[in-house]
Write a structure and sequence with these properties.
five-stranded antiparallel β-sheet, Jelly Rolls, binds fe (ii) ion, globular, 2 domains, mainly beta
Length: 248
């Protein structure tokens, strides 16, 4: 959260993090010298050791959903943090820069610099996500789901965080599944109900809930469609060859 005029000073860390803009018109995140506006539904990545800072130019409080892999890095004793120069005004005097190279799906420059395991695209506009969801057919679980991908590899956007957007059809529960990994869900729009293990609860816009490892999960939108943003550590388990999933 940033109040009008506030900024989070430049810094970087080994932790991978992301922001999903909830109410953030007028705010921006700078990632490795690229200006990323934070419009509603935008996803912005800050890959490991990417310099970043945030600024609120609007006259109202802005709010985003933040996810990071700090617990994993702390458990591995691999968390390092570097503060940037708070007096460096040039940090904020940037435009979208090389982010434009990765703007359009299906187009990539073979010369563009990439970092193994991390998406070279940092900014995934919400408008494109909504358009893609609308054009996508329902999958085997009954939802329309799209994965945010690294355009250089078609894999997960970062080495430890994997992101999805899910559109739930009204009053139609998703197929029950469980996985040996953890996910967090942000309700982007709509209302619904989820059953996670033995617990059932209802949710609405901006609610956040977790899907703990190896619990049976089903979601259902109520009274209309609902959109979820989901971030998961399943890619860690996949890379360690520990990924396990079951459907019912
Ligand atoms: Fe940070």
């Amino acid at each position: 959260m940033l109040d009008p005029g506030e900024q989070a000073r430049p810094h970087r860390h080994t932790g991978a993090a992301l922001r999903f803009a909830v109410q953030a018109e007028g705010a921006a995140t700078i990632v490795n010298g690229r200006w990323c506006d934070m419009r509603s539904g935008d996803l912005i990545l800050t890959p490991p050791m990417a310099w970043h800072g945030h600024i609120n130019h609007s006259n109202r409080r802005i709010i985003w959903f933040n996810a990071a892999n700090m617990p994993l890095l702390c458990a591995l004793n691999a968390y390092f943090f570097e503060a940037g120069d708070p007096t460096d005004d040039d940090f904020w005097k940037v435009d979208a820069g090389e982010e434009r190279i990765w703007q359009a799906a299906g187009l990539a420059s073979p010369e563009a610099a990439t970092v193994p395991g991390c998406s070279p695209k940092f900014h995934y506009p919400g408008a494109a996500t909504r358009d893609t969801l609308a054009a996508t057919s329902a999958g085997t679980d009954g939802s329309r789901t799209v994965r945010y991908i690294n355009p250089a590899t078609d894999g997960a956007v970062m080495p430890t965080l994997d992101c999805y957007a899910m559109r739930l059809k009204a009053d139609s529960p998703t197929r029950t599944r469980r996985g040996a990994y953890t996910s967090m869900c942000l309700v982007v729009s709509g209302y619904g109900r989820s059953r996670v293990g033995d617990t059932e609860f209802e949710w609405g816009p901006n609610d956040v809930f977790t899907l703990p490892s190896w619990h049976w999960v089903t979601h259902q939108a109520l009274g209309g469609e609902a959109d979820l943003f989901i971030v998961s550590d399943c890619i860690v388990f996949e890379r360690l060859e520990l990924l396990r999933e079951e459907w019912r």
